[in-house]
Amino acid sequence: MKNKESLFTKYMMLFYGISGPLDEYKKQEMRRIGNNSFIVSLFYICISSLFFVIYGIHNKYAGSIYAMVNVVFLVILSIYISIATHKAKLTELDVNDAISYKIAHKSAIYKGFGAAIYFGLFMYLWNAVMEHFIDGKSFYLAFFKPEKGFIIFIIGGIVFGIAMYIQWRIRIKK
Amino acid sequence: MNRVREYREKQGLSQFALSQKIGVARQTINLIENNKYNPSLNLCIRLAKVLGTDLNGLFWEEEDEK
Description:
Chain A is mainly alpha-helical. Chain A has six helices and two strands.
């Protein structure tokens, strides 16, 4: 029995790292983890905004501090989500025989390649935009002659792709 | 304890095979068998149909079993 999943559901599965069919148990766990994250985020936004408003009146660095604290909060939230999804076994991908193992392994390799290309491109574009807007370089120089050279993006992409491949490979359970 | 494992073994099905038949993940079957997850009525009915029994046979606890 296969239900057609919407694009949003597919995105949610990608976000939580869910492998295999999205059955009712996985949906329930996904909602539980999402609700927990939402409630914590709501409290965080209320309290941190209040602090920001009070503290920001007299401190010119309040905005930068607030942005950094937000990043720390996001990292903590991401760690919680990855631990919770792992604990609920949402990320495990079962393979029954040698053929399905081979298919899953091949898929992990393709995903690794995809992740490497996306990450390398993202880093390159992000760097070019930052060089243009922050360092004041022209668009041509920022895009075609990046300060750090092209090799840094290629290496970054390869490292990220390998890391993603290892992560997907670990999820395959025989 | 439910009797999902008992009926599954009677049918000669592995957890993976049963999960494929009813369209859920193997982990879900494992959690149901170990009473760690309460399936929805819809899933219970699908389980009962595939295992060739009814809901009472799968989930009803007799007094002496409690």
